[in-house]
């Protein structure tokens, strides 16, 4: 099939970017979206142009590297998949596809479609862990039984891949879904309860420092999340935060 | 204001609590107004109580005004912060694909309601202040009904009121349910809560619209 | 012993590790503060090593090419992690795990290392649970286990099909805690390009900042390579796009021996290649073989018709299907180990019975399982005389509950409904057992240079069992390396900070600049991927699932020629001092082009078939692998001498004192 790609090109964080048109032909339905971009890049290199830069790695929907706003939606029009799992059969011959980077002040553009998402790492560093030494002297794994429903819920929250689609989809560029997923994972486990107060306060403080927007409960993050992380996590974080504040 | 709510989560809670307070106030307001359709005397009595009871006047009213101010100032602060959080906008953004219009445009519905409040204050509150304190008129427990009905005589005011109530309805449609999420309530009761809040968001503004139209269509004949 | 001293402690197998830990030198906590360690790679091995060493008090610097440590490819591991916890009471023990691993590896791994791995496996689970890793649990609240291919006990812990993700996020969280304390400095979007040796000891690395393009020098008292496997030498593999051999290969070029490069695991259940544009292969969990039956048409003309799209697989009658695994291996059937299943599929496809338009696919059919589960479900739900539609519907529900996410993933990629028509699968490169040679302390042949996880060669012999890769990465990182490295570092407490102004850094940096400039200066005809794909084709066709001397010799020639062409004709846009993804790829492919040749050379010298290494000349009349313990019971460790063809082979004889060498049979 034949397509017209409108791709955001930007040399670096301090330059101005713009959409550039790239007509492309010979695209097959079996190609993934990123393979389609590979084809484009091979053509660009052979012509002596600079290839389009974008983040990608595992190409099976788990590493969270790939991003892209495709026609105004993070990871494209399909639900519960990442860009690398989107296939070109989803598009029609003659379509125009607008491809932009995930945009947020907290995700500065590095080049073209590649953005810096280390703000997420810093939020995790502020408290997204349980302070237990890896000495090999902890209690037996089965010493504390955990209700299956709680363990499953914790797993669901923990399945976040940190791709940033929630931020990209949110009209406020809020990182509440991401942050709350980590807060929830630990809040639901007995091992995580010990540090719950400090954790939620520190992570929320860091999230705000990074310049993410405020949550207005539109729910766009949940809809666009490739892993289906639930809004309940945000409510849980709010609750945890209120309780932490009440405790002082 | 920033001292009041240092973090994003706290600011949400402030929005939610002030919003819920205003939602509660609306019930009181709509109840009193509804009496104007049923019994002018009751309406006069209640209005007089609201206007001259010292607890209402010097405690409740300032709290209400503060609630309104907190809600809209915080709303505007949040909007400014949120816009800063995405300094460069998308060329193409399919916001409608993942969230309904009302939830994404609370600032629009909110500002319209705020503008309406300006008119509303001018119409009633300023009028009252002027009547009671500037002109220092004597108490007249029977004047309220006539004054109210008279306000709805011009078609333009009635139309503005009706439009504003529609936008209030949209604002409540998202805002009322959203306040529970902000306060950390999202559980098995949430779908019930949402149904209730949406019913509220439709019924309360509808009653206001009904009252406005009723008075416009049934002027007092002298 | 000579040059290859495995440093395995003396004493009975089960006591070696404890004894060793008691004997080695320690560094006192105050001195640890003065010692720096560099860790390259932040997957399970690297992240866990970084976390533990930082906890112990060392100053750690980590390097990864990804934008965050959390994205290392350990994240993609699906199935689970083995541990000899014996929670199921089915007779499991460290010894049994040790035995299964040695046997599964076809007796080509080091006994003492494997036993230590089995011993530490139990700690891993305790540790991960304490860190908040949400493993699957039973209704009673205790941890759940599943069983995996090739073993007789249930010892695999899992978190749905995302065990690797959860374990990596646990290690990443432990790292984050140390980053927050200032004990780890994490360099992301950085690629290690060389190791720096001062007076013969590893004292630092040269890395490139992938965003600015700047070449940087970093010094330390010891360097750990935990950069994963080299499956991408095949171009198409289940590895991530960025997975590469560069760190491991550069240390090899500086003197670290590279062991068993030809030991590669080819996983039988992957989604087949659909066309030339394909960039990567996707794994379908091994667990599918519990319920799926593997077959191809029994008649060549049926296979032909299917390939041409004239016939549907569901229209082929039962008697015209060849369930070749069940036919060849009646005892294990569809559950034979990975290497055996892969080879059998290739054999059928090579004989002309393959399906898919490429002819390189076999069916994995759930129809029988759907019927079986459907009838069972109807019975237990009290439905009397169910019609076939009801049975199918109920059966599909059971299958969906077990494998729903995999079926959905398959449908997304292939655009066929695997509930209605059989899945198509084909083997793909998945894991590399070979890697940098290390002794019992995980130290390479360069003093102060250590290697952990998939990047080293140590624990899996010639074939890795399912759910053992995660176990090895974490055991190395959390529980082995942090202690063994102390023995070496105890000599460094008075060394003080290492200066990056030393001439060795100067020289290494100059060499790297020249190397990258040479790539950029090439005349420029073909993009990097062109060469990578060509290399992949040679590797897959001549060094893949089955190998022979003639083709291996051809491969050596062809790869050398391709490498020459690459350096002359590769086309790389952009420059050195800026972000340049094509230059990154070129550097990696340049190293693959050398490794590939050594790989073939290694396969050529190993005149036997064992585990993932199958030499056509060495098979039984029935086509099974023929191991030669008399002549090849060794680790081949290669010393770099300039060109891959000049590499010198050193042999580490494997000593088996605790297990009896047997022929693996799954008949």
Short key terms for the protein model shown above:
heterotrimer; A: 248 residues; alpha+beta; Ubiquitin-like (UB roll); 5-stranded mixed beta sheet; 9 helices; B: 222 residues; mainly alpha; 3 helical TM bundles of succinate and fumarate reductases; 8 helices; 0% strand
Q: Quaternary arrangement of the chains shown?
A: heterotrimer
- Assigned CATH architecture of the domain at 268-428 in chain C: Alpha-Beta Complex
The structure class of chain C reads alpha+beta
Shape of chain B: globular
Strand order of the largest sheet of chain C: 5-2-1-9-17
CATH class of chain B: Mainly Alpha
Q: What would the CATH topology of chain B be?
A: 3 helical TM bundles of succinate and fumarate reductases
Question: What level of helicity do the residues of chain C show?
Answer: 25-40%
Give the C-alpha Rg of chain B: 19 Å
- Secondary-structure-based class of chain B equals mainly alpha
Keywords (chain B): Membrane, Transmembrane, Transmembrane helix
Transmembrane segments (chain B): 12-38, 58-80, 101-122, 155-176, 197-217
Organism (chain B): Robiginitalea aurantiaca
Protein name (chain B): Succinate dehydrogenase cytochrome b subunit
Walk me through what this model shows:
Chain C: This is Fumarate reductase/succinate dehydrogenase flavoprotein subunit. Chain C: Keywords: Coiled coil, Flavoprotein, Oxidoreductase. Chain C: Pfam families: FAD_binding_2 (PF00890), Succ_DH_flav_C (PF02910). The complex is a heterotrimer of chains A (248), B (222) and C (667). Chain A has 248 residues and is an alpha+beta fold. Chain A is 36% helix and 11% strand. Chain A folds into two domains: 3-110, Beta-grasp domain (Ubiquitin-like (UB roll), Roll), CATH 3.10.20.30; 117-133 and 143-247, Fumarate Reductase Iron-sulfur Protein, Chain B, domain 2. In chain A, strand 6 and strand 7 (114-115) form a beta hairpin. In chain A, helix 5 packs antiparallel against helix 7 (196-209) and helix 5 crosses helix 9. The model of chain A has no long low-confidence stretch (mean pLDDT 96). Chain B has eight helices and no strands. In chain B, helix 1 crosses helix 3. The longest helix of chain B has 31 residues, at 8-38. Chain C has 667 residues and is an alpha+beta fold. In chain C, 39% of the residues lie in helices and 14% in strands. In chain C, the strands form five sheets. Chain C has a five-stranded parallel beta sheet, sandwiched between helices.
């Amino acid at each position: 099939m034949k397509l017209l790609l409108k791709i955001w090109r930007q040399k670096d964080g301090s330059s101005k970017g713009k959409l550039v048109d790239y007509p492309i032909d010979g695209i097959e339905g079996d190609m993934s979206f990123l393979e389609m971009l590979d084809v484009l890049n091979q053509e660009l290199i052979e012509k002596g142009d600079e290839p389009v830069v974008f983040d990608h790695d595992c190409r099976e929907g788990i590493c969270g590297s790939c991003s892209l706003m495709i026609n105004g939606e993070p990871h494209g029009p399909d639900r519960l998949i990442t860009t690398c799992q989107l296939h070109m059969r989803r598009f029609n011959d003659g379509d125009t596809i607008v491809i932009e980077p995930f945009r947020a002040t907290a995700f500065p553009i590095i080049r073209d479609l590649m953005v810096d998402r280390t703000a997420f790492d810093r939020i995790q560093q502020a408290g997204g862990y349980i302070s237990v030494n890896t000495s090999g002297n902890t209690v037996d794994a089965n010493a504390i039984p955990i209700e299956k429903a709680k363990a499953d819920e914790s797993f669901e929250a923990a399945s976040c891949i940190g791709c940033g689609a929630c931020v990209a989809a949110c009209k406020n560029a809020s990182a509440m879904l991401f942050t709350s997923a980590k807060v929830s994972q630990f809040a639901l486990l007995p091992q995580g309860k010990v540090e719950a107060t400090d954790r939620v306060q520190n992570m929320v403080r860091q999230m705000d420092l990074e310049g993410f927007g405020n949550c207005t409960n539109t729910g766009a993050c949940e809809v666009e999340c490739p892993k289906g992380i639930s809004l309940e996590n945000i409510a849980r974080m709010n609750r945890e935060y209120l309780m932490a504040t009440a405790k002082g | 204001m920033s001292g009041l709510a240092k973090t994003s989560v706290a600011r949400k809670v402030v929005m939610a609590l002030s919003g819920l307070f205003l939602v509660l106030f609306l019930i009181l307001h709509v109840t009193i107004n509804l009496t104007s359709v049923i019994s002018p005397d009751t309406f006069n009595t209640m209005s007089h109580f609201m206007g001259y009871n010292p607890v209402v006047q010097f405690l409740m009213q300032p709290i209400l005004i503060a609630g309104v101010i907190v809600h809209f100032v915080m709303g505007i602060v949040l909007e400014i912060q949120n816009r800063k959080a995405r300094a460069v906008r998308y060329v193409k953004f399919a916001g409608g694909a993942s969230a309904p219009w009302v939830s994404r445009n609370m600032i629009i519905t909110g500002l319209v309601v705020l503008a309406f409040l300006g008119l509303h204050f001018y119409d009633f509150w300023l009028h009252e202040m002027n009547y009671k304190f500037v002109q220092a008129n004597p108490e007249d427990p029977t004047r309220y009904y006539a004054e109210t009905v008279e306000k709805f005589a011009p078609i333009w005011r009635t139309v503005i009121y009706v439009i504003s109530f529609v936008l209030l309805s949209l604002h409540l449609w998202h805002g009322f349910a959203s306040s529970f999420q902000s306060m950390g309530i999202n559980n098995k009761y949430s779908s019930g809560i949402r149904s209730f809040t949406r019913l509220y968001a439709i019924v309360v503004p509808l009653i206001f619209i009904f009252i406005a139209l009723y008075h416009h269509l049934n002027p007092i004949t002298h | 012993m000579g040059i290859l001293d495995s440093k395995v402690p003396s004493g009975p197998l089960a006591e070696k590790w404890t004894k060793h830990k008691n004997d080695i030198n320690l560094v006192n906590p105050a001195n640890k503060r003065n010692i720096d360690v560099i860790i390259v790679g932040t997957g399970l091995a690297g992240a866990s090593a970084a976390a533990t060493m930082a906890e112990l008090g060392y100053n750690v610097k980590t390097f990864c090419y990804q934008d965050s440590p959390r994205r290392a490819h350990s994240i993609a591991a699906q199935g689970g992690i083995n541990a000899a916890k014996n929670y199921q009471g089915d007779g499991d023990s460290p010894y049994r795990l040790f035995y299964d691993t040695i046997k599964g590896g076809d007796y080509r791994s080091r006994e003492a290392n494997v036993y230590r791995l089995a011993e530490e496996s139990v700690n891993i689970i305790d540790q991960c649970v304490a860190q908040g890793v949400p493993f699957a649990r039973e209704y009673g609240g205790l941890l759940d286990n599943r069983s995996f291919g090739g073993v007789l006990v249930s010892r695999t812990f899992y978190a749905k099909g995302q065990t690797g993700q959860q374990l990596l996020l646990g290690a990443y969280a432990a790292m984050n805690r140390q980053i927050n304390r200032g004990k780890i400095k994490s360099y992301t979007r950085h690629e290690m390009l060389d190791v720096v040796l001062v007076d013969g000891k590893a004292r630092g690395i040269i890395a490139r900042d992938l965003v600015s393009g700047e070449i940087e020098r970093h010094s330390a008292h010891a360097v750990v390579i935990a950069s994963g496997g080299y499956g991408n030498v095949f171009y198409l593999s289940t590895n991530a796009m960025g997975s590469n051999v560069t760190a491991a290969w550069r240390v090899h070029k500086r003197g670290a021996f590279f062991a068993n490069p030809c030991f590669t695991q080819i996983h039988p259940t992957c989604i087949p290649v659909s066309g030339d544009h394909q960039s990567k292969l996707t794994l379908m969990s091994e667990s599918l073989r519990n319920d799926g039956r593997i077959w191809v048409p029994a008649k060549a003309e049926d296979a032909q018709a299917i390939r041409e799209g004239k016939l549907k697989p569901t229209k082929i009658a039962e008697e015209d299907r060849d369930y070749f695994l069940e036919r060849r291996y009646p005892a294990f059937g569809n559950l034979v180990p990975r290497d055996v299943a892969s080879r059998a599929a290739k054999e059928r496809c090579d004989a002309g019975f393959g399906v898919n338009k490429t002819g390189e696919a076999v069916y994995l059919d759930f129809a029988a399982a759907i019927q079986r589960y459907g009838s069972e479900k109807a019975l237990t739900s009290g439905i009397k005389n169910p019609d076939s539609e009801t049975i199918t519907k109920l059966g599909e529900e059971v299958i969906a509950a077990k494998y729903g996410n995999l079926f959905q993933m398959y449908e997304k990629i292939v655009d066929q409904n695997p509930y209605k028509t059989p899945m198509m699968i084909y083997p793909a490169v998945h894991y590399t057992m070979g890697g940098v040679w290390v002794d019992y302390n995980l130290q390479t042949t360069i003093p102060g240079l250590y290697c952990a996880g998939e990047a080293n060669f140590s624990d899996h012999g010639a074939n890795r069992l399912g759910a053992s890769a995660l176990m090895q990465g974490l055991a190395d990182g959390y529980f082995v390396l942090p202690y063994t490295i102390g023995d070496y570092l105890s000599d460094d407490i008075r060394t003080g900070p290492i200066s990056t102004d030393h001439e060795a850094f100067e020289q290494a940096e100059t060499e790297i600049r020249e190397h990258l400039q040479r790539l950029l200066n090439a005349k420029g005809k073909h993009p990097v991927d062109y060469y990578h794909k060509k290399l992949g084709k040679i590797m897959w066709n001549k060094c893949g699932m089955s190998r022979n001397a003639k083709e291996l010799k051809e491969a050596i020639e062809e790869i050398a020629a391709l490498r020459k062409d690459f350096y002359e004709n590769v086309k790389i846009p952009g420059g050195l001092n800026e972000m340049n993804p094509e230059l990154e790829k070129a550097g990696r492919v340049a190293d693959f082009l050398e490794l590939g040749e050594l790989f073939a050379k290694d396969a050529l010298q190993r005149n036997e078939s064992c585990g993932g290494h199958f030499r056509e000349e060495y098979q039984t009349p029935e086509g099974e692998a023929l191991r030669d313990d008399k002549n090849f019971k060794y680790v081949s460790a290669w010393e770099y001498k300039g060109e891959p063809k000049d590499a010198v082979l050193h042999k580490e004889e494997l000593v088996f004192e605790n297990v009896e060498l047997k022929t693996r049979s799954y008949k």
